[in-house]
């Protein structure tokens, strides 16, 4: 995750059910929290994370 929040780029996880997309999104959100970002997790069909510092 080096540099990802700082450059403000989107990350899109694509794949079949059960391949770990939600797990990866959760891991990125937790790492962002550790780095001092605020994280908003949207639990809709289209999963998204909003990071703010």
TrEMBL record:
**Limits of the IstB-like ATP-binding domain:** 4-40
Under the heading Pfam families, the entry gives: IstB_IS21
Any one GO MF annotation of this record: ATP binding
* Name of the molecule in the record: Mobile element protein
């Amino acid at each position: 995750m080096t540099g990802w929040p700082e450059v403000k780029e989107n990350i899109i996880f694509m794949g079949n059910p059960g391949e770990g997309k939600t797990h990866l999104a959760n891991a990125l959100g937790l790492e962002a929290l550790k780095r001092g970002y605020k994280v908003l997790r949207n639990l809709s069909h289209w999963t998204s994370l909003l990071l703010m510092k």
